[in-house]
């Protein structure tokens, strides 16, 4: 039985472990965090990824955890409503698309795999030594072990990728914007509602999903000119506070809550672009290999489909990992490229450069319900997303 070590227990890792186990492999998942990560932000599952989740028998459970968001409201600096739109259109969703909290999806995948998959928490990989018949793995806390294959499913700043391919500077491409998300008290009493306050070069928001007692604050802004330390959380909070210091609406209260937030997240909006996703017996999946950035709205779907295709390709190759990795990349790369194209176009509408652009966008949103041909206008928004989300055929393995 082929033993496979997977680094990362978010979405791609447990999903891959599920499919590897189905195909007769023996997967082990190692996660740096001391326990399963909870919380996180809203994510979408669309197109081909929905078919993968359905084949896992988890679609009904995923739908039960839907955010059930209803409306997005845009407000000015004094909190006055400028425009509204449906949550479906705001998120670019249509038909059977599902929005779920990242932590909820992670918990569902973990529950589906925990009885058949070995999970190691509070540990990480520090070295990979490939031999003729396996990879000797050195762990930060546990003893060395040898595996037939190693998979990096550990996100944009992948540790496995750094060990096997080199520093991330050659693979992680900043799209010129940053994002921060964290939990805050629901002081506005939001119920399945998203509030957004746009300003030139930056946008602040807050939302609360179904059955959630608290809310999430979200900040998007043009990347700072000065460099910052990705591991200096306090410095990141200070940078965010400076960037939004003079913004109105409820931004001051959201920033006050930031200092004690239990789940502060701050990062560049970046894409991972690589010429190859495997090296010897090491392969990457999900954001570690081809993260399309939060601006694409497709990171989770790529992770779910990538996990399915990688496991199936290895199974079809009957033990030949070189052939399996090649088939995985051959099937996935066109799908990845189609979805990565969404990011930069989406960013233009998420962070507007001038007050004039904001006035124009708000005016169009107010007029849209009354315009002839509004259905065609809406389709122009959702069609590129639908096309990208279905740009792969889910084959049987």
TrEMBL record:
<dbReference type="InterPro" id="IPR036188">
    <property type="entry name" value="FAD/NAD-bd_sf"/>
</dbReference>
<dbReference type="InterPro" id="IPR051704">
    <property type="entry name" value="FAD_aromatic-hydroxylase"/>
</dbReference>
<feature type="domain" description="FAD-binding">
    <location>
        <begin position="2"/>
        <end position="338"/>
    </location>
</feature>
<dbReference type="Pfam" id="PF01494">
    <property type="entry name" value="FAD_binding_3"/>
</dbReference>
<protein>
    <submittedName>
        <fullName>FAD-dependent oxidoreductase</fullName>
    </submittedName>
</protein>
<dbReference type="GO" id="GO:0071949">
    <property type="term" value="F:FAD binding"/>
</dbReference>
<dbReference type="InterPro" id="IPR002938">
    <property type="entry name" value="FAD-bd"/>
</dbReference>
């Amino acid at each position: 039985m082929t033993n496979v070590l997977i680094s990362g227990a978010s979405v791609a890792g447990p999903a891959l472990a599920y499919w590897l186990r189905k195909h007769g492999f023996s997967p082990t998942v190692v996660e740096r965090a001391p326990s399963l990560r909870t919380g996180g932000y809203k994510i979408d599952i669309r197109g081909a990824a929905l078919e993968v989740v359905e084949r896992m028998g988890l679609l009904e459970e995923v739908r039960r955890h839907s955010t059930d968001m209803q409306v997005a409201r845009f407000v000015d600096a004094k909190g006055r409503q400028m425009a509204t739109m449906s949550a479906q259109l705001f998120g670019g969703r249509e038909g059977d698309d599902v929005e779920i909290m990242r932590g909820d999806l992670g918990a569902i995948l973990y529950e589906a795999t925990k009885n058949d998959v070995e999970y190691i928490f509070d540990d990480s990989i520090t070295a990979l030594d490939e031999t003729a018949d396996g990879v000797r793995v050195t762990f930060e806390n546990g003893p060395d072990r040898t595996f037939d294959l190693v998979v990096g499913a550990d996100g944009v700043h992948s540790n496995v990728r750094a060990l096997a391919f080199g520093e991330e500077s050659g693979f992680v491409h900043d799209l010129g914007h940053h994002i921060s998300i964290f939990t805050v008290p629901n002081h506005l009493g939001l119920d399945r509602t998203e509030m957004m306050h746009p300003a030139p070069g930056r946008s602040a928001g807050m939302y609360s999903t179904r059955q959630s007692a608290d809310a999430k604050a979200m900040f998007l802004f043009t990347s700072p000119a000065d460099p910052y330390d990705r591991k200096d959380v306090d410095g990141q909070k200070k940078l965010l506070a400076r960037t939004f210091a003079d913004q109105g609406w409820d931004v001051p209260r959201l920033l006050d809550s930031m200092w004690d937030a239990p789940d502060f997240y701050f990062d560049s909006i970046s894409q991972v672009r690589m010429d190859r996703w495997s090296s010897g017996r090491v392969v990457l999946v999900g954001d570690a290999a081809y993260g399309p950035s939060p601006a694409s709205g497709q990171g989770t779907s790529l992770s779910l489909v990538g996990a399915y295709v990688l496991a199936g390709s290895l199974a079809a190759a009957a033990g030949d990992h070189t052939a399996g990795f090649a088939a995985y990349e051959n099937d996935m790369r066109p799908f990845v490229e189609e979805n990565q194209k969404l990011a930069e176009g989406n960013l233009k509408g998420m962070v507007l450069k001038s007050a004039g652009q904001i006035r124009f966008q708000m005016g169009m949103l107010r007029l849209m319900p009354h315009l002839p041909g509004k259905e065609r206008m809406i389709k122009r928004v959702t069609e590129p997303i639908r096309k990208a989300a279905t740009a792969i055929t889910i084959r049987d393995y």
